[in-house]
């Protein structure tokens, strides 16, 4: 115990070993849903559910362990919601490429992120992207996730007349999804830890019992490395414009998602300086970057810091020991891959809607009365779900922001990097590009 005290500076940060262990358990329970949701989303890209489940757990464990041991933060990591959606719907389905192409892009993005975690390049990127676009990106991804969840719940279906329409609500799948949504919403309102996991479990058991999904043939198994997704890279297109666009989009979302979460959770734990900076943030970014590269090696989309880490921080977690506990629990989850792989989409659909709702908070910070800020933010938000592409939303936001600042007589309000990005994006779409 004394060794843990010294290594993590537990007493110095006003915590105890017992508190750190409890905080780690709470954090894991609030984010364990990713073990169920991520494989479902990536399976639509053609990836095997069992392999992705293992990759999800291992990627999360590697990134979280580094966050605890190297950065000494009580922050947990896992494949990011939104990034997995872009992987499946924006890259694989949107561009019509194989999932190995997307997995390679994630790996390269992770390597670039490692490089950017040193020196001032990352800081330059963070300062260059306009605040309204950062806020709008999170909000737009939330809407995108909600749309995917509603579709998986069969509450929203396609229509030749109106593009989308309400599904058959009285059918078993929509009714079960709505029940899960109510359960999760009620438990979350009551501040019940692990409400998302409880909701998923309840709906999955009901789906198995009603014959809407096949129950697992076995509940536990001995862990093994992924068979089809391990090191399944395809480097044949790394020099193409399409590949570069995908890599940069992954990098953009990953960097700002991680930055926003580190600052938000750091504020909850009292880690921030008066000027809003997080001491040791570079180590946090490095942990994220290595986790992303490792996750791609095993077979999952980009790993990022989770806002659910705030649950453990609120429980009293103040050191990296909290993160180490989360990493150990992710490793132990590998024994339950058969069970996790049998979770049907209807069970995870409510979670996508709830997570989407939680990501709406950034919209209230936007200055809606300033059109040169509001319109680019709005385009960023709505084009993500309406075009089924995170990249299209971000691109529209950056180009319109640069154009409006320039034409409204406020060119200095946009960083020079924004104008460079805007020109490159215009050229990209003008030559037939898109995401």
UniProtKB/TrEMBL annotation:
It is found in: Cell membrane. It comes from the Bacteria. Its main location: membrane. The chain crosses the membrane at residues 20-37, 49-71, 101-121, 133-151, 171-189, 196-219, 239-265, 319-337, 375-402, 414-431. Keywords: Cell membrane, Membrane, Transmembrane, Transmembrane helix, Transport. It is a multi-pass membrane protein. Pfam families: Xan_ur_permease (PF00860). Belongs to the nucleobase:cation symporter-2 (NCS2) (TC 2.A.40) family. Azg-like subfamily. This is NCS2 family permease. It comes from Archangium lansingense.
